[in-house]
Amino acid sequence: EVLGFEIIAHQYHKKFDEPVLPIACWNSMDSNMRAKTAASAKIAADALHKAIANTLVAPPKKWHRRLSCYHPSSVSTTECDRYLAYDRLGTIPRPRNLNLELQLIFVLGHAIHDGFQTVLSRAFGDNFAAEVKCEYEILYISGNSDGVVLLVTRGIQKIIIEIKTTNTAHYAEIKKPEKEHVIQVHCYMIALDIPIAVFVYVD
What we know:
By secondary structure, the protein is an alpha+beta fold. Helices cover about 50% and strands about 15% of the residues. A 4-stranded mixed sheet has the order 1-2-3-4. A hairpin with a 5-residue loop joins strand 2 (about 140-150) and strand 3.
């Protein structure tokens, strides 16, 4: 099973010319066995790649976001007023296949978010809450903050935590929170009535 996983992982990332096997095992094979092993590895790798790609680009089976409201993540990033209007009217977008590379970025971003939320939960225990629901009916705002920390070191105060991922080049240029991120977190701040927010940028 371990060898199978290594072969698949190797073939999927295409880093080497031969399947990743212990040298003694690979050297003990004749040319026919090596060819069969490599062919099996390619079949497994292709099946894995196809399954992952099809899953990532497939449109969602069911729309999962709340309808008839403004979502802070959309308000802060989209330049299309029509998109926001459809969001507010409760129109469900038509299903469409998604970009594979973009979906992989989303998957990694979610994984980093989950990891930091786990660290914050361990650091603050019951004084940290992840994915805090933010509703502000007056402005039809609905979304989820990455987290809220209750600090008790200098008096009791709540702080919103917003986690953002970026690439290395962009990370080096960041001197202050991005404008769209500030707009997004302000929606959470007004909904939760919390005046302080901290951004965590992850390279």
